């Protein structure tokens, strides 16, 4: 990346941060709600975040087999073989890290919005070409697994908060698909 590209990227990021700060479509969460999201994420990820991420993708592939076809590096693999696919494992790690970044930045969402927009653009027709209808599936899979792993401590309130947060992530990524594609 040359200096002009870096400058353009920084200007775009600054623009998106300011646009979000002045937006009426901000993600509205109370301090208590943010804490619930952070604690449930930390507990869910536990000591092995890679395994938790892998489990999310396994569940998504199981429930929505059509999603596996968009991952060329996983489309013909059985579940047990997937963890031997370094590209899939890298992708899972990056997805888990991005969700973690969103959770970590709940008090400063304007700092994460440019990354989500860019991520959405990379998942558009000129990038990975992921149908926007697929975006909710990983969130659904994550919430199911959180309920299983956290049991009664994952309440309906937690589920509603995670649904709200995922919808914000999805909406921002779709906006990025449309804007930066």
TrEMBL record:
Domain of life of the organism encoding this protein: Eukaryota
PROSITE patterns assigned: GLOBIN
Keywords: Heme, Iron, Metal-binding, Oxygen transport, Transport
A molecular-function term among this protein's GO annotations: metal ion binding
Pfam family, one: Globin
Keyword NADP in annotation: no
Domain Globin: 28-178
Keyword Transport on entry: yes
Similarity field: Belongs to the globin family.
UniProt name for this protein: Globin domain-containing protein
Species name: Owenia fusiformis (Polychaete worm)
């Amino acid at each position: 990346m040359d200096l002009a590209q870096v400058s353009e990227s920084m200007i775009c990021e600054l623009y998106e941060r300011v646009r979000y700060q002045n937006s009426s479509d901000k993600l509205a969460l109370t301090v208590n709600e943010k804490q619930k999201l952070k604690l449930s994420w930390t507990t869910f990820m536990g000591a092995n975040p890679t395994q938790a991420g892998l489990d999310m993708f396994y569940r998504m592939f199981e429930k929505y087999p059509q999603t596996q076809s968009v991952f060329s590096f996983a489309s013909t693999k059985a579940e047990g073989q997937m963890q031997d696919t370094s590209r899939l494992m890298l992708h899972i790690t990056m997805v888990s890290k991005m969700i973690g970044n969103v959770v970590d930045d709940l008090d400063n969402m304007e700092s994460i919005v440019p990354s989500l927009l860019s991520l959405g653009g990379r998942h558009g027709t000129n990038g990975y070409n992921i149908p926007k209808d697929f975006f909710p599936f990983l969130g659904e899979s994550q919430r199911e697994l959180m309920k299983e792993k956290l049991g009664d401590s994952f309440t309906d309130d937690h589920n509603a908060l995670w649904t709200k947060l995922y919808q914000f992530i999805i909406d921002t990524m779709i906006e990025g698909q449309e804007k930066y594609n």
